[in-house]
């Protein structure tokens, strides 16, 4: 049976819901393609037999249903033996040649969507003919080509999971696996996981997690009733919460009705809590509320408080006066002992009785009564009523002298602020007492005034005075100025100020320091007595920001500074930005010290400031300001100052400040500071003494840290030369016969290798050169003119020292002092050696470092390197000779048709050598065609040569060349004409 027939039979079987009757089970007489089946097995066998679904029953044109292979109506509609078929059991009938697919009759022979069987679709571009897909298979998304048809392997029962994987009869294909049909939920329940293998059946009418629909969960406090989330009885749904509108203050009586602050919700109505009363819209306790005592609006005044609904004075106080005020009659100066009893001026009420302070006396009567100091009062001098004459003052109970001009504020002496440090001479002997401040100020006082236009730190002391003084600052109205944190604006005895400790004079002198904003001020000198005194007065700009008190010492300390706003302190080191300040006081008998302050990180050396910071140090007594903008080096635009803090005497102290400023910008910075004695040798930088000439962390100045790898030389950071390491060697261009490099600075170089001779422990630099393949050359180098003790030697690129010169005479492979034979170079060096093809390294080293010169020359060596083929040419006249053979072939061709084999002669000259003429001739000295050349790498035109002299010499050679003055390498080549055959020769030579 083909698959279309199987599908059709399956549809027919599924349409019959009742039990199979004998009539239904009988063989289908009209279905000629079905073999007779056993009774009761007709339908099952007709739907799916092992052979129909398990064998490779691929549809072919012969396996297509014919009109006779259609379910016979009698096969499914015969009356059952037990009961009649109901109309719902009757399947839809299709016309002859068509198959019912779903609810539609289609021709599975031609339908591209149901080709050969229902739901078997052909690929894009294919057609269905004879129940088979024709053409190239192009399946849509989610489908797979199975043979010539497209199938969904997830749902196709004939291709379930893979092509040809047919399911058993009655099974369905779900997610690529065969199995029984998916279970259905009972009536009244909903499947909330329709895509899962097993259904999740819920009653959406009662499920709190799926109320009314799958996934709709009820909020906390609600339950699902009839498919809707419902609050419990007695609560109402307000927004997302079930609330009791009878008690909920945010939903009182109805959703959204909020009770005013302080009220509560009771039975759906807002009101005050029990024991409280609504007064002016606010719930209050009328038993204790001072503004609504007993009843709304009844306020307690005069110091009374509400107790049990009535206003009353606190225990120990009495209500006095109109309006009534609660006072203590034990201490009230206006109600002393009883209401209305006032103490005289200057008296105080103690234990209900009026009394003058100790040291004063009650003088006068009635309203004129007052407590006065009869020792200083000019109207009660020595006794009540004793008035001093005009122009005199009361001193120690006696009328004396004329008061000074600055006895009052109106006559205050103006301080000249153009002087940063000065001593103001004062004498309070004849002055009067006009003001009080702190400590003992019962004596005479005098006044000084000053006006500042920018924030400043003001300092003053009376060290050296012989009597008990006090100092304080008042504003233009005569009001004492309050001190900011870290400052003291009023002081009697200096120890209380905290700037200087220990014994200073009689310890009764005074010391103050204040940060003041622009304005007019008075400096007042007072005390317990009177007499002459010198006021040491100093001032310095404070900047627009904060001023912090510090205590520098020999240990490096730090202070944080964050500037903002518009700066006010100005200086010579880029100081237009916002500014903060630090201050401290050096006390009497302090030795000279050095302050070092910087904004460089103590570990890395980089600046701690996020902006271009500057520092200035000001000690008014010194008279000069020390500042710095950019320290350079690792600290970049950070700053560093070193300033001398002068010594003080037994009666002097000094103000000192550090201003943290900047070039227009502002921000955060860390200031490091150290105060210590000067160094015996070197410069103090932070807590250490260093030599700024060679210290890489303080090169040329404190905090100027050199970059990594640099050295500090003569106070300057010097980078190592580029060829300090072998791997970074300078490459010598061998196309140049001579290379001269002057001013090589090895001071910052390191020592990386050692030579085989002399002193090579100093700095070294490296030069690489390569002799071409097939060549051999003589290398010459010297360091003449260098400023220090040098050495020269040659290594392979692997770092192995070359020790053999490979020259018959006068060669040196490593030289420290003296140079080549006869040169006497002193501490400078000369080398000369022959090297074959390969890569080499020339090392310039020595006993130290400095500025060096290097001269490097090279010249080729000819092919005949035998006992006579490479020789030292002596000075003066000589007639060397020999025999040139061929092979080996020529290796040196400097012109003049000299391509044949050659002999090589060499010599060197010293620094003191003068220029001279060189001559050579082979006339009458050879029987073959010669070519000669003289080569001096240090000459502008290194080569001079001749091939044929002509005349009587014929093809022999003759030449003259100039030998330059000074040190260098020189060569002579006895060569062969291009095609000539060489042989024996002599050559007549003269050389300087």
Report on the structure:
By secondary structure, the protein is mainly beta. 3% of the residues lie in helices and 33% in strands. It contains five helices and 68 strands. The strands form 24 sheets. Strands 51, 52, 53, 54, 55, 56 and 57 form a seven-stranded mixed β-sheet that branches. Strands 29-31-36-33-34 form a five-stranded mixed β-sheet, with no helix packed on it. The N terminus is likely disordered.
Write the layout of secondary structure elements.
Layout: H1 3-15, H2 22-25, H3 42-47, H4 50-54, H5 73-77, E1 99-101, E2 104-106, E3 127-129, E4 132-134, E5 144-146, E6 149-151, E7 172-174, E8 177-179, E9 190-191, E10 201-202, E11 222-225, E12 228-231, E13 236-238, E14 241-243, E15 264-266, E16 269-271, E17 277-279, E18 282-284, E19 305-307, E20 310-312, E21 318-320, E22 325-327, E23 348-350, E24 353-355, E25 361-363, E26 370-372, E27 393-395, E28 398-400, E29 413-414, E30 421-427, E31 446-452, E32 456-461, E33 469-475, E34 490-491, E35 511-516, E36 519-527, E37 532-541, E38 547-549, E39 557-562, E40 580-586, E41 593-598, E42 613-618, E43 625-628, E44 640-645, E45 654-662, E46 668-676, E47 683-685, E48 688-690, E49 711-713, E50 716-718, E51 730-731, E52 738-745, E53 765-782, E54 790-796, E55 814-815, E56 830-846, E57 851-860, E58 870-872, E59 876-878, E60 881-883, E61 903-909, E62 916-921, E63 930-935, E64 943-946, E65 958-963, E66 968-976, E67 984-986, E68 988-991
Parallel strand pairs: 29-31, 38-40, 51-53, 58-61
Antiparallel strand pairs: 1-2, 3-4, 5-6, 7-8, 9-10, 11-12, 13-14, 15-16, 17-18, 19-20, 21-22, 23-24, 25-26, 27-28, 30-37, 31-36, 32-35, 32-37, 33-34, 33-36, 39-46, 40-45, 41-44, 41-46, 42-43, 42-45, 47-48, 49-50, 52-57, 53-56, 53-57, 54-55, 54-56, 59-68, 60-67, 61-66, 62-65, 62-68, 63-64, 63-66
